Amino acid sequence: MTSTGRAAVLEQFGEGFTVREYPRPSAAPGGLVVQIETATVCGSDVHAWKGNLALDVSLPMILGHEMAGRIVEIGAGAEVDSVGQPVQVGDRVVWAHVPCGHCHECTVEMTPVLCANRYIGYLNDCSVPPHFTGTFAEYGVVRPDAGRVRIPDGVESAWASAGSCALRTVIKALDLAGPIDRDDTVVVQGAGPLGLFATALLSLHDPRRLVVVGGPSERLELASQWGATDTVLVDPADDPQRRIDEVMAITGRGASVAFELAGVPGVVGEGVQMMARHSRYVLLGTLGGPPQPVNVSTIVTRGIEVIGSMSGAIGDYHRALLALDRYQDRFDWSRMLGSTYDLEHLADAMDAMVSMREIKPVIDPRAAH
């Protein structure tokens, strides 16, 4: 290992990245230093890159928060992970954002993912030591108060990286949605990483109908292979009413449970019109963008329960890794992964995500440009 590490730094929203070197960090008591083995691009990274993420951000930034890192230094007292598994140098881990631990949401509501004071590394100024705030870098810093979980040996690093955000977010949302069984008609809006992970896990509940609304067509083909009973292609040139009518025809009375996982303008207003009476609509895909018009009278007259789901706690990270391990013979998780990019070509990876050429671009910070 060298005394410095490289990172792709965003200095202006929407612009390219500058690869810079910073001193290699040291592990604080209770913390870890990891060498990033694999990072993957998330839609939230794209929103932050464009400057329209609905969270506070501070330039310059090292984006990236989906990762698999191999431990290179363990601080005193950090010899076990958050679920009691021993860790040692060389083990791979994922880790979480850090709630403050002393606000109403943290201590009374017991919902640390809603903590308004959470430390979200990649949204912070990376010019301040220890510099390695995001994971599009050679090193990562696991803060002493950050949850962390060891990656099972049978889980590939790129799967774990994708699972550390998209899948743990889906697992949390499924918990909030409540029971889903053979009598339900489930609609998934979106066929990106969130939508595909949701499709896979929802298929395990064996609902009467599992309808994925999204695109492009090759993603819908993967959704079908991962358990969707029906798919509806989103053509931006089409009248949204066509999609609504198609979903209503497939389900008979609309969705008894639906998940908004697309994060595009107008998706919630459209989703409300797809709902059955006395149904549950879970929103988790939209983290930025302009306000969306919604027909509130439809929510009222159909008795729709609308549930917002944000992120996931460290236990959801753990359950995500267990799901990746347990169901890898049923779902080929690698089908979700795109090309591998080095730090110098991070902007190309972001563009591949924006243009929907790839579902989940992979970043290898160790790769030579």
Report what the structure shows.
The chain has 369 residues and is an alpha/beta fold. It is built from 10 helices and 15 strands. Strands 3, 4, 5, 6, 7, 14 and 15 form a 7-stranded mixed sheet that branches. Strands 10-9-8-11-12-13 form a 6-stranded parallel sheet, sandwiched between helices.
End-to-end distance: 18 Å
SSE ordering: EEEHEEHEEHEHEHEHEHEHEHEHE
Give Rg in angstroms. 20 Å
How many H/I helical runs? 10
Average pLDDT reading? 96
Global morphology: globular
Helix/strand class: alpha/beta
Sheet of most strands: 7 strands, mixed
The helix content, as a percent range, equals: 25-40%
Strand content: 15-25%
Query: Tally of extended strands?
Result: 15
Question: Which regions contain 5 or more consecutive residues with pLDDT less than 50?
Answer: none
Keywords:
10 helices, 369 residues, alpha/beta, 15 strands, single chain, 6-stranded parallel sheet, 7-stranded mixed sheet
What layout of secondary structure does this protein have?
Blueprint: E1 4-10, E2 17-23, E3 32-40, H1 43-50, E4 66-74, E5 92-95, H2 104-107, E6 139-142, E7 148-150, H3 157-177, E8 185-189, H4 193-203, E9 209-214, H5 217-225, E10 230-233, H6 240-251, E11 255-260, H7 267-272, E12 275-283, H8 296-302, E13 305-308, H9 314-326, E14 337-341, H10 346-354, E15 360-363
What's this, in brief?
The chain is α/β, with parallel strands linked by helices. 27% of the residues lie in helices and 23% in strands.
